[in-house]
Each structure stands twice: as structure tokens, then as C-alpha cells.
Amino acid sequence: MSLHSQVILAGLRWHDRNDIDRQQEVRPTMKRDRLHSRLPVMAMALTCMLWYAVSTGAQSAPEQAPLILHMLDYMAVDYPEFVQEGVVLDAEEYEEQVEFSEQVQSLLAQLPAHPEQPTLLQQAAQLVALIQAKRPGSEVAGLATQFGADIIRVYNVEVSPKHPPDLRTAASLYQSQCSACHGTQGQGDGPAGASLDPSPSNFHDHQRMDQRSLYSLYSTITLGVEGTGMSSFRTLADEDRWALAFYVGNLGHDRADLTRGAELWQSDLGHDWFPDLRSLVMVTANNVRAEHGDDAVPVLVYLRNEPERLMHTAETPLAHSSRLLRESLMAYRQGQTQVAQELAVSAYLDGFELVEASLDTVDKPFRMTVESEMLRYRTMLKNGQPTAAAESQVGRLQELLAEAQRRLERTQLPASATFFSAFIILLREGLEAVLVLAAIFALLIKAGRRDALPYVHAGWIAALVLGGITWLVASYVIVISGATREVTEGVTALTAAAILLYMGFWMHRRAYADRWHSFLQDQLRDALSTRTMWTLAFVSFLAVYREAFETVLFYQALWIQAAPAYVSVLGGLLAAVVALVVLSWLILRGSVRLPIGLFFGATSLLLALLAVIFVGKGVAALQEAGTLPIDPINVPAVPALGLYPNLLGVALQVALILFIAGLFAYTHFAARAVR
């Protein structure tokens, strides 16, 4: 049995018995009185739901997926060696190929349900059939490679480190963890390996190592090889396992390869081949040699030694959009409409949207044109327009994105434009939260309940902290897609709208109680119970968290574009903070000075208006994520009011306005009847 086969079997056995190990790897994966009593419970449940909305879309792939990828990698590499021209050259190895292809089918069926899972199962069945029929190696290898790429895409499998590993520590890590068996130079001649059968791998064996990708080496280090001296190193930190994979992957190459690779890279060769870490760790030396020629191997060697070089060639947001649009069109040509739609959504949310604020400072009408054309493309895919029409639209979008890149002056913005962009981003995202918080603060002050202010402060501070944590997790631990971000924002906005509507109605009823002098002294204080305090804290949390994470992403994109004029970004951010503080003070001061009846009436209308706005924005966010359908209509877009040219959003806003008007009218006439 080959060493590669044993790695696969070790993984399968580990999958069957890893209940204990799994625990070590878990990743953070109407009556008024009755409603009052349930709001704290609802708040807790909704908070969990919001975090689940993020973690569901962003969590690492199920544990079966890496095993499937490992088997597919094995079949793509070894099948052509053991079956040639329909003749089996090694019966034992061939039987393993059949067994692994069947295991792929079994494991694939255990993966979570997904719209594309039936298609993947068809590919698995086709792979089994090809191997059983002893089809040519190129045919099996090609299908296995494409199959693996589809699984990575569909199940969001992490196949690369989030950041370049620290290779300065890799050598000492290798000597302490690996040299006893593999030898100090990696030639498989370590003293502890002399009695092992099979012998430890020789990392200088080019014939074998040229077939291994860094991801393949990482998988072996992670899973170990049962029945051999190669144990699992899952107890090591993930970044250490990646560092070892990079280190041993280059042990067999000499200094000449590294020097030659550096020269070629400096001459701009290979930048298109290796745009990011993922493209580096997923290829073998044989892959790049066959596709790009002999010069590609030294470039691969150089980048494996200097992976941080790829951080300087990362895609800009607009380049990312352009690439995803091409992939979307390719999927649409192949009849994969759902895939094409997902890629089109990602092209907007994970690319273009991140530079919208910067484009607004240069040419806002142009930005709106690009945004509209991207929506038009997604609508075309949804409606099943002819491929020629989709090709024409993608061509137009590519021209628009190229023009946007030129207008941003190769991502370098003038200091004044950067300052204004940073100022507008925070002011725009924070103004709605300020209105909600000011209304809550004014309510508590008018009621003489300053003791409850810490609840509200705890709510918005917790939102800022969680927003920062979410950003850190998304940047360093897991991948949170733009679609997941929009789903989170949409759910948060709709939840906030429901609670704001309740609060608005609650305050509108009290607008008619200002004639009762005892109201403020007794009833209002009693109404603001501990449960209500937690409700207000939850509202303040929703108002701030809804925008916190997205605001950080916008600043992250702006920071890249502003280099090296970082001072202008910080200046714009600080200016926006000052503006929001001043606005908060003015709104709060004006609200507190209003007569009690007028205060409750005006504040109830404000909260009702914000509920309408949040509904519009929540629906739009879910539509951008592809969760809700988009049916464009001819109405002007007014983002400040949550008004967007789509039928569902406008219809819900109109229905909500009518509902609010009816509810407020009922309260008004009921109060008059009582008086």
C-alpha cells in the first residue's frame, strides 16, 4: 500500500472515531404586559440568531470535505500511474482507487444539504464509473481535479492559510518535531527513522515531491499516517502546520532555484499565475511546469520561500469584481445558473461595494451607473436571458470597472478625497444609530431614570466590541463572505425595525397622557421596568451593530486605496466622530426640552420612520445577498430613506406606513373617546 494511500485511510479512520478529538476543534460554528415580559428572552434569542447568521455562512467546511479533497488529490496523482491504456499495472493500488472513489460518494452524501449537492453526487458517480471502466488517466485526473475545485467552492473549504506563515520559526520547528525521523536535511535518514517501515519520506525526492502541493503536505501533517511512524500533528497550531508544509515543500530545491525564481518574479513573471496564497498552496511543481513552462518552477520555489510577497500583489476590490464576473459568465455558459448568480452577487458585495464611498467622492453618478448595471446583470441571470445577452452585459461591466479603476487613479486617492470618504462613511453609517440612541437617552432622562442609562451604554458598547471581534475573526480566523455580511445586516435591520415599531407605538400611546400629572411620577417610572431596560439596551445594540462590521470593511478598503496618505483617513474618521458626538448632543438637548406630550409624539413618529427605513434597508441587504428576489421598478433610489427601486422593498414599506398610520389613528381616537 502506498504511503499516500495510508494517509487517506488514516483520515477515514480518524473520521470514524474522532468524537473526542472533535471536541478539541470546535470553532466558534399581543398584550402589552405579556410582550414586555418576553422581550428579554426575545432579545437573547435574536442575538444568538444574528451570530448564527454570520457563523453559518462563514464557518469552516464540514470535516468530511478535507478528506474528500485528499482522496481526490490521491486519485488525480496516482491513478494514471497504476492504470495505463486500460491495463491495471498494480492490482492492489487499483482496488484502493475503486475503494476511495466509493468512499468519496459516501462522504459526499454526508455533507450538509446544498442546491449543488446533487450535481456533485453525479460527478462522484461519474468518477466511480470511469475508474471501474479503467478509463485513461488523464480523463480520471481531469474529473477529480475539477470535482475537487467544485467542492472547495460549494462548501467554502479553507485550503490556504489566512496569512503567510512565519518561515523564520519553521526551521527550528522542523528540527524539534520532524528531524528525528526525516533527518536534519529532510532526506529521510533520521536516527529514529532507521527502524521504521516504510521509511520516512525523503523530501529531496523530486519525482515524488513534484506531485505534492503544499495543501497536500499540510493535510498529511494534520492527519498523520496510521500504521507508520508519521503521527498526527493536530496538536500544533494551524499556522505551525502550514509553516512546516512550506518548509518541507522546498527542502529539495537548491539556492540556484531560489535565486532564479527571485529574478523572474522581479521581472513580473508569474504575477498572474500566483495572485494569492490559495493559488500558491494548491498547485504542484508538475502543474505549473505543464501549464507555464520550466521557468514557472523556480518562481514557485521562490514564493514558497517568500510567501509574504503575495500580500503585495493581492487583488484590488475592482479586480476581484472583474474576475468573479468572468467566472460567473463561465458558469452561466455551462448551465450552472445558481453558481453564476452567487458569483455575480459576490462580485458586487466582495468587490465593488467596498470602493463605493471612494467612487462617490470622484463621480457619484458614475458609481450609481455601475451599481445599476451590476444589478441588471444579476436580474438577467435570474430571468434566464440568452447567453449572448449575458456576455454583452459582462463586457460592458468590465469596461465600467476598468473605467472606475482609472477614475480612482490606480487606487491612489488624493488626500482631500480620502478625508471626505472617511468622513462620509462613518457619518452615513452612524447617523441612524445616533437617532435611535438619542431617542432612548431622552426617554430615560424625561422619565427621571438616569439610573437606566448604563443599560443603554452597555448595549452600544457591546455592539462596537462585537463588531470589532467579528472583523478580527473574518480577517484572521474564518472567511465571511459579502453575502453573509448582507444577510446579517438584513436580519439585524428587520429585527430592529420590529422593536422600533413596538417602541414607537408604546410612546405614541403616552403622548396623550401628558395631562395626567401623576403619569411621570408613577406610571412611566413603573413602566420602565428592568425588563424594559434590557429591551432598550438590545435596541441600542442592534442600532450600532447593524453597521459596525460593514463600516470596518469599508475603512479597510479605503485604507488600501489611500496608501500612503493614511493621515487623511484617520483625520476623516476623527472628524466624523466629532460630528456624530455634536449631533447626538444637539438632538438629545432638543428632545429633552420638548414638552412631555410633544416629546412622546415626535419621538414615536421618529421611531416609526426609522422602522420604515430599516425595513427598506433590510430587504435591500437580503436582496443583495441573493436571499430575496429582486423585481426592479421605476422609482428613484433614496438610500437615506431606505427606498430602493425594487418591488418587494417598496411594497413592504408602503404596507408598513399604512399599518403605522392606522395604528396611530386608532390610538388617537381611542384616547379622545376616553377623555
Helix content: over 70%
The oligomerization state is single chain
Contiguous helical run count: 28
Q: Measure the end-to-end span.
A: 91 Å
The largest beta-sheet arranges its strands as: 1-2
Could you name the ranges where pLDDT drops below 50 across 5 or more consecutive residues? 1-60, 514-524
Q: Assign the structural class, choosing from mainly alpha, mainly beta, alpha/beta, alpha+beta, or little secondary structure.
A: mainly alpha
Instruction: Give me the count of strands.
Output: 2
Number of domains: 4
Order of helices and strands: HHHHEEHHHHHHHHHHHHHHHHHHHHHHHH
Strand content bin: under 5%
Q: C-alpha Rg, in Å?
A: 30 Å
Main sheet overview: 2 strands, antiparallel
Mean pLDDT: 76
Shape: elongated
Give a short synopsis of this structure:
The chain is mainly α and 675 residues long. It folds into 4 domains: 108 residues, no CATH class; 209 residues; 123 residues, no CATH class; 91 residues, Four Helix Bundle (Hemerythrin (Met), subunit A), CATH 1.20.120. It contains 28 helices and 2 strands.
